[in-house]
Specification:
Elements (H helix, E strand, L loop, with lengths): L1 H11 L3 H8 L7 H13 L15 E6 L6 H15 L3 E6 L7 H10 L4 E5 L11 H8 L4 E4 L10 E4 L1 H14 L5 E5 L5 H14 L8 E3 L4 H13 L4 E4 L2 H13 L9 E6 L12 E4 L2 H16 L8 E4 L2 E3 L11
Parallel strand pairs: 1-2, 1-3, 3-4, 4-5, 5-11, 6-7, 6-8, 8-9, 9-10
Antiparallel strand pairs: 10-12
Length: 333
Amino acid sequence: MTKRLAEVAKKAGVSEATVSRVLNGRSGVSEATRASVLTALDVLGYERPTKLRGERGRLVGLVLPELQNPIFPALAEVVTASLAQRGFTPALCARTIGGVPESDYIEMLLDHQVSGVVFAGGSYALAGAEHGHYRQLLDRRMPVVMVNAGVDGLGFPHISTDDAVAVEQAYGHLRSLGHERIGLVLGPEDHMPSRRKLAAVAKLAGWDRPDEWVERTNFSMESARLAAGRLIQRGVTGMICVSDVVALGSIRAARRLGLDVPSDVSVVGFDDSALMTCTDPPLTTVRQPIEMMGQAAVDLLVNQIEGSGVQPDELLFEPELVVRGSTGPAKVA
């Protein structure tokens, strides 16, 4: 008990005596201090006293699908800073291969009486995945915001980059450089953002058989290298990729085949994540407005927490094509 008091006191920046008064429900503590102590208790993973468990703390879950793609830490930085400005403490839950599944993270967050949850990619973006744990949140009327496109009918608001506009920009750029054989390196077939990108390009290009121009990846660089290599061997000279990490894998594929980027093959990424100006060559990519999206996600979540009605709609943000060195004119046959 003494150790717990000391840890909570240090985390909350108050005395152990103040922590004791809060946990025992005694008077003489301001609401702000009381909230800080309860949040510290939640963050450290200690159970609240029984009489306090019915109260949600000012703790908000942020669930990420991974940390290897730099776009997710960038989004986390925006969301956590915005939450702190609004008086909330974020609890970061990042999934790893073979690690804690998303459903277990949700159980943990519910046990800690979180005020709401922000998802930045997850099972909701995969049509064939299990979605029962989201129904659990809906049944409890938990404030939730989901970042990036997901399956229909979950009942939560979404914040997304406009995938159709993104690939229109990328495709138009490659066409303006003279590329006619343009392929896509996308995520799994049931990945909703990938489905949107494919539908938009298929319409633009008039594809009757899109399989000839599409390869799938699990978002890793090595998987992307294999997928892009198959496209290149089919004669593709320009590639639009589902993420910057996938684009870097595609550049590696071209080089493994003895080709130059962009002289032989042009590559466009998606995200404009950190350090894309420092790659070789610097990556042409479609920038997601991460700062605006992260702040909007927090605004939507806080509105729900404070009781303001929020419609379960999708808020689309305009992307921006950033032209760098990985795209160039198509070779003249």
